[in-house]
Design a protein that fits this description.
Structural class: alpha/beta
CATH class of the largest domain: Alpha Beta
Oligomer: single chain
CATH topology of the largest domain: UDP-N-acetylmuramoyl-L-alanine:D-glutamate ligase
Shape: globular
Strand order of the largest sheet: 10-9-11-8-12-13-14-15-16-17
CATH superfamily of the largest domain: Mur-like, catalytic domain
Mean pLDDT: 89
């Protein structure tokens, strides 16, 4: 992601100059005593005269192989992890160029002051929901809140989330700066393990860091559960000295985080829980497929809270968000209103009501940990059948069709893996047979049954789906079926009389 540049100088349009010795105090410099950075890049094709080239390493490329080209294109300095020939161009050697890239991005294009309080949320599951629940509570308290998450980004001037996949520290830095310039007082940021692996928060002093839970996920990226947890724990390095850590005390791994935080930081610790004593806790008073009511306890006050989604993970995310809000002294009644007003989070589990007798939920769990939580909750609450419909491609993402079906069968009576072309005008015989099976299963659902639809959730700004396309999200297919099967009643029209 490259920011706008002045056409004459080729440097970023928002003027800023950084000395690398101040950003990287443990670095070694060669052919110079320091390097002044006015512009920077890690893409050799985008390197312009005067830029600092950062030789980042990835799974697919080693930036050190492009240093000679960057020098030929006029780079004013090189940041690398080892000694390399630079033909007299100043060289800065650091232990990790990914960390250096993130640190440089935040220094050059990130926050300029201390007015924006950054709340960073990570964990195996529940990050997105916790981020938006927290933002809803803080907004209810009258704070100007910005959000950076997988479900969209919002600044103080936005009315709808803006789709922007944050995959690089430079994007995160630019968004934090945008939130600061728009007048936000607080920024709630979702931080995935992929971003933490890239040291995305290097140079950011987070006022609060929150961890939803630590399970087993993304082992294809991190190799082992131990390595994955180590990456997640990097979020503690971003905590400011006078900040706070908020953890889910129901997660047995949270105690290790608390102990490490107390050893390394002097800030406060807030806890949340449904099953344990915590700073903020809650008890489920009622939980059915229609929703759930919690008795929330915070600051010595007990307050009922109603949530549309009945799964346990939603309650746990809500209580964690309440604990974050307690850190900012939000009153219990505003916490309750903030939790109830949000309804559901776009891109996460939501209710679909088209007048049918049975209950329908749409979800796109980010990993098997999230899926198991949703299925176990719905399985316990369903008095009748639990039917799971999943897009074929989505099942492949969660371990393959056979593994997915085996996992889902622990809680559901029936699992249908749906091919992508069932609603296409170019549908094959197999697609039509799959739709016939779907139609049969949906027709057999009755009151007390529950349907869970898993797959691509339409984006916030998506328009109507064209049946001529080869792929239509499964949610749209099910929505169409429900609307046709449950047409709205209009009997009042027959009784209208002329005046």
């Amino acid at each position: 992601m490259t920011p706008p540049r002045d056409s004459a100088s080729g440097v970023p349009s928002e003027k800023n100059l950084q000395k690398l010795s101040e950003l990287f105090p443990d670095a070694s410099f060669f052919a110079c005593s320091d390097i002044e950075c006015r512009g920077f890049t890690d893409q050799v094709k985008e390197c312009r005269p005067g830029d600092v080239f950062v030789a980042r390493c990835s799974d697919y490329d080693d930036g050190h192989e492009h240093i000679a080209t960057a020098v030929a294109m006029g780079a004013a300095g090189i940041v690398a992890e080892r000694m390399v020939p630079t033909h007299g161009v100043p060289l800065c050697v650091v232990p990790d160029t990914s960390w250096a890239w993130a640190r440089l991005a935040h220094a050059m294009e990130g926050l300029r002051g201390c007015g924006l309080r950054v709340i960073a949320v990570t964990g195996t599951s529940g990050k997105t929901s916790t981020v938006w629940l927290t933002a809803s509570i803080l907004a209810e308290a009258g704070l100007r809140v910005g959000v950076i998450s997988d479900a969209g980004c919002v600044d103080a001037m936005s009315s709808l989330p803006e789709r922007d996949s944050i995959t690089d520290p430079r994007q995160l830095a630019s968004w934090l700066r945008r939130l600061e310039k728009s007048g936000c007082s607080h920024a709630v940021v979702e931080v995935s393990s992929k971003l933490l692996a890239k040291h995305a928060l290097a140079g950011v002093a987070c006022d609060t860091v929150a961890v939803t839970n630590l399970g087993r996920a993304h082992l294809d990226l991190h190799g082992t559960a131990t390595a994955y947890h180590a990456v997640k724990e990097r979020i503690l390095q971003a905590a400011s000295n006078d900040g706070a850590l908020v953890v889910n005390s129901d997660d047995p791994r949270s105690q290790r985080l608390v102990e490490r935080y107390k050893d390394e930081c002097t800030g406060s610790v807030f806890t949340s829980g449904l099953q344990s004593t915590a700073t903020v806790s809650a008890t489920a008073v009622e939980r059915t497929l229609a929703g759930q009511t919690l008795l929330l306890r915070c600051d010595g006050v007990m307050m009922p809270v109603s949530l549309d989604v009945p799964v346990t993970s939603t309650a746990r995310n809500a209580v964690l968000a309440a604990a974050i809000a307690t850190r900012y002294r939000v009153p219990a009644e505003k916490i309750a209103r903030g939790l109830e007003s949000i309804g559901s989070v776009a891109g996460r589990i939501t209710r679909c009501d088209r007048g049918q007798d049975f209950t329908v939920f749409i979800d796109r769990p980010s990993n098997g940990h999230s899926l198991a939580s949703t299925l176990s909750s719905l399985g316990r609450l369903s008095h009748g059948r639990l039917l799971v419909l999943v897009e074929e491609g989505f099942a492949d993402q969660l371990g393959g069709k056979e593994r997915f079906a085996s996992r889902a069968s622990r809680w559901s009576e029936q699992t249908l893996i749906v091919p992508p072309g069932i609603a296409s005008e170019n549908a094959t015989v197999e697609d039509l047979q799959a739709y016939a099976r779907l139609d049969k299963e949906l027709s057999q659902l009755h009151a007390g049954d529950c349907l869970l639809v898993l797959g691509v959730v339409p984006q916030i700004d998506s328009g109507p789906f064209d049946p001529e396309h080869d792929f239509m999200p499964l949610e749209a297919v099910v929505n169409g079926w429900l609307e046709l099967a449950h047409e709205p009643m209009a009997e009042w029209g027959g009784y209208r009389r002329a005046a």
